Fold this sequence. Notes:
alpha+beta, FAD/NAD(P)-binding domain, 2 domains, eight-stranded mixed β-sheet, seven-stranded mixed β-sheet, 11 helices, 21 strands
Amino acid sequence: MKDRDYDVALIGSGPTNLWAADELIRSDPRLKVAIFEKNNFSSGGMINDCKLNLSHKIGVDLDELKIPEEYAHGLIEIVDQRFLYFGADPYVSGTNEEEVNKWVEKAERSGVELIACRQRHIGTDQAKVIVEKFRQDLESKFVEFYMQTNVKDIQKKDDVFQLFTDSGEFRAKYVLCAPGRDGAYWLRDLAGRLGVKYRWGPVDIGVRLEVRKEVYDPITNIIYDPKFVLKTKCHGDKVRTFCSNPGGRVRLEPSAVNGFKLINGDALKKHKTPNTNFAILNTVDLTQPYADTTEMARNIAIDANRMGGGRPLVQRMGDFLEGRRSKTETFFDRAMGYDLIMPTLKPGLPPEGSVTPGDINLAYKARIMNNLKESFERLNRILYGITNPATLIYAPEIKFYDTKYKTNKNLETNVANFFVAGDGAGKSRGIVWAAGTGIIAARGILDKL
Ligand SMILES: Cc1cc2nc3c(=O)[nH]c(=O)nc-3n(C[C@H](O)[C@H](O)[C@H](O)COP(=O)(O)OP(=O)(O)OC[C@H]3O[C@@H](n4cnc5c(N)ncnc54)[C@H](O)[C@@H]3O)c2cc1C
């Protein structure tokens, strides 16, 4: 084989491909495996907060993957064991059944479902250490990492894939594409060129709330990241909470994809803030004549950034509920009670500020806003304080994992030897299941060798 020829090319160095590489190289150490990553540090979203939802009920749709529950449990165990091997905190939350059940019942009384599961929190600080150890381990087994190597295009010629990158051309017999949410749009373009079949699925559009830590502590002390799910009365739509960060920080998503910035959040293991943040997401599905959920969500994200003068928006709950925009002059107003919560993502102009006080209503569609408003009020019945006027609402928080690729049970697409996995391919919605789908695809490749 020539230098730039590989058995397997893995696009993206997120959890999907770390676990895929691990599975491939442990099963067949002679394989030539390369990971291509456009950034200078592996591994995608895994270095952010890194809370592990150790369940098949969160972050995955087993029907989409075509796997039974028992098999899913086995995959979760493999992923978790690898984290522990590289030094993850052994503490797991969500195991006190009696306390968990009390919360499940309390939520039920407000017509809200609480999905409880075992969770392990790594933290942004510790996740970086684990990712580095994982990478060194793979390199010691001769997996080659090409960092800062953007894969621009992939073409198939005579049963071999040609990868066109900004560091030149590479070839591989098998390709596993896992470019994450950041690369979802790129993957969709590429799929069109390669003739890979896909369809549009629902997209999650919402906001991130930041409250004082003591508002959310009663539940996060029992379940680190509680997943509340409800069907709204106003439109009958699904809304859920997602990615809670007790003592955490609201963050801009690390990469500013395609000309707009998105809101997210994380928490450190060693340093806590006085606040807790979590996302509230409305699942939006479209039918004919216009079903392109990606494009709709992109337009909302662009609008929200436009309203913020090129930055995401932040609004006080008091302003939001009374139908007025938030303003810089009154953002910390004592008389309005706005000095009660200090934002962890500063309002104002860069370099100090990252978000703009404004009106989220102007950027979001009425149906989404109605759903969110009703959800705030119903969640406030479970955890009093959510609708405090000082609560901070950040937007846009959008999860781009809506394009669904047609794959077989090994995650191979209709283009032979071209596999897709992870969030960017709509196969997972979180670290554990991104890794799980990486293992499935790797096993699929091993089957074909
Ligand atoms: C701030 C933040 C906090 C989060 N917190 C959590 C959490 O606590 N728990 C949880 O389960 N999930 C969390 N997530 C989500 C989690 O990070 C993702 O679900 C997970 O990383 C998806 O894995 P992936 O392998 O599919 O993609 P990613 O981890 O996104 O990795 C994809 C990689 O591919 C690279 N790439 C894209 N296109 C190309 C290309 N053309 N060429 C080369 N490289 C390319 C990207 O740079 C990226 O590094 C968080 C995400 C963010 C942004």
